Amino acid sequence: MNPLLTVSNLSYSKKDKSWFGKQEHFRLAPVSFELKAGETMAIMGENGSGKSLLAKLLVGVARPSAGEILLNGESLHDKRQRFQAIRMIFQHSKESLNPALTLGSLLEEPLILNTDLDARERKRKIEETLKLVGMLPEHQYFYRHMLSEGQRQRVAVARALILNPQVLVADEPFAALDPSVRSQTVNLLMKLQRDLGLGFIFISHNLGIVRHISDRILVLEAGQLVESGKTDVIFNWPKSDYTRRLIHAYQALITRDE
């Protein structure tokens, strides 16, 4: 099977001035990987390792210094094309929803900007997408304050799905959720992946969830790709000292909680 997403030698380099006048330089060394339809790739690493930057490069929020992103073997040079094909699930669902707009208006905006659907077709697409994430068509008339935490997270997923993407990128999507909502959201995403054949790139500090949902893992340290492989292999036979430290810290936390 041909890969859904191919990332070849993707890199980033930028110098910024800090508040104290010093130059801060962050470099993401060339990263390459492939993602199949229906597969989940997790990206592990400490704060500042480059995980979130890699996510921004994939969805087009940041521009790489070099490298190429292919979808089904075709280059994604066009920013609009990438915006539709690779979509981001926002971490803080509440803050990402405009309190002055109904859910229908929030979901309609990307359809107006990126499709040729008329008003009736847009309404039908909104209702279909709400049903897809376990909500009712009537929820399109709700405002942010009328939703539970779990419903807001489902809306965040609906916004990512509304343009029929082939790849979803989620940067710490469960960090702010309580355990019950987190579990519901994980199950929802896994069901959507099975039903729609989505490729899923998942960034999280929660190694328990990483181990549960991912097929393969990339490990980043200070912008360097230090290790990659199947999830079970990474957790059971890590090659680098850095990966071993990450996994040991997770296992120590589990033992303490028990």
TrEMBL record:
It holds the Pfam family ABC_tran. GO terms for molecular function: ATP binding; ATP hydrolysis activity. Residues 5-247 form the ABC transporter domain. Coiled coil: none annotated. The keyword Nucleotide-binding applies. PANTHER family: DIPEPTIDE TRANSPORT ATP-BINDING PROTEIN DPPF (PTHR43776:SF6), TRANSPORT ATP-BINDING PROTEIN (PTHR43776). This is ABC transporter ATP-binding protein. It comes from Bowmanella pacifica.
